[in-house]
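Lab channel / #folding
Pinned by the channel admin:
"Please post every new chain as: sequence first, then the structure tokens as a reply. Keep commentary short and put observations after the output so the thread stays searchable."

First post following the new format, from NK:
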Amino acid sequence: MQKGHTVLNAIRFEFIRLRTLRSTWFLLSGSLALQFVVALMYAGQDELTGRERFVFSFTGISLLLVTLLPTAVAVASFGHEYRYGTITTTVLTLRGTAKVLAAKALTVAAMAACTGLGLIGVTLLVDVLHGSTPEMWRVGQVLVAVVIFTTLSGLVGLGMAATTRNATVAVVTVLGFPTIIETLIVVGTKINTGLLPFNSAMQMVKLQEGGNPWLLPLPLAALAVVLLGTGGTLLARRDI
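Reply from TO:
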């Protein structure tokens, strides 16, 4: 029971730290505002159907950009610790590096998932105001896709920050990997995009009715697990 209380205390500690940082609210508000602009742009394209306007609002570079901001919050979860030298205090307070990583991962995942829901809500609001809404099955499918993508992207950012101990490197990598590195891999090797973490996960948004989306996020989930595992191992071994 004491162990359970310790874990809950660790989560509570991280949640309070996350919500008391002004940068958290600035970045999350920026993500929602950017998604509002993207949805507004597509809502004005009369040649598109209601379904197309909704789906296109979550495709390509726009999806990467709006999810980059909550990912930056995830990166800052470790980045601020190393920048201001508070990681040692955090580890001592939470009594172990494993609890620190678990608490950060859970709070980041919850934050990212809620942000994904907010992105869907903002887009639906814009579509409703313009008098066009997609079918409910499509809303549900895109909602699941966006929440999964936002959550996994946040965990990848957290894992990258834990591994590198550098917030700038982590953010640049999370942005550059899907936009530059994965593109170069596709062009240079003709590899199936379904094997590339970010590209594969983003395909969940465009999945046709009756398709099976559950294999698409696996590469990104695997990347998140590898980075978190590596970051956790290094955190336990480093002289923090």
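NK: The first helix runs from residue 2 to 20.
TO: also worth noting, The chain has a mean pLDDT of 88.
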